[in-house]
Amino acid sequence: MDWKLSSRPHHTLQAQIVARITERIEHGDWAAGTRLPAQRELAMRFGVNRSTVQAALDELKADGLLETRQGSGAYVSGSAWNALLARSQPNWQRHIRASVHRPNRHTIRLINESEPDPSFIRLGTGELSPELLPAEQLQRSLHDLKLDARTLGYSEPLGSLRLRSAVRTRLEGLGIHAQPDNICIVSGALQALQLISVGLLEDGSTVFHESASYLNSVHPFQSAGMRMLTFRPGSDVQERLARAGRGRQSLLYAVPALNNPTGRSWNEKERKTVYDACSDLRIPIVEDDVYRDLLFAPGLPPIKASDSSGQVLYLGSLSKSLSPGLRIGWIVAPSPVIARLADVKMQTDYGSSAFSQEIAAHWLESGLYAHHAEQLRSKLQARASFAEQALHDRLGEFADWQTPEGGFYIWLRFLHPIVNKGFFRRLLDRKVLINPGYIYAPDDLHHIRFSCAYASQEEMISGLDILREEVIRSLSNPNR
Amino acid sequence: MDWKLSSRPHHTLQAQIVARITERIEHGDWAAGTRLPAQRELAMRFGVNRSTVQAALDELKADGLLETRQGSGAYVSGSAWNALLARSQPNWQRHIRASVHRPNRHTIRLINESEPDPSFIRLGTGELSPELLPAEQLQRSLHDLKLDARTLGYSEPLGSLRLRSAVRTRLEGLGIHAQPDNICIVSGALQALQLISVGLLEDGSTVFHESASYLNSVHPFQSAGMRMLTFRPGSDVQERLARAGRGRQSLLYAVPALNNPTGRSWNEKERKTVYDACSDLRIPIVEDDVYRDLLFAPGLPPIKASDSSGQVLYLGSLSKSLSPGLRIGWIVAPSPVIARLADVKMQTDYGSSAFSQEIAAHWLESGLYAHHAEQLRSKLQARASFAEQALHDRLGEFADWQTPEGGFYIWLRFLHPIVNKGFFRRLLDRKVLINPGYIYAPDDLHHIRFSCAYASQEEMISGLDILREEVIRSLSNPNR
Question: Which domain of life is it from (chains A, B) (predicted)?
Answer without folding.
Answer: Bacteria
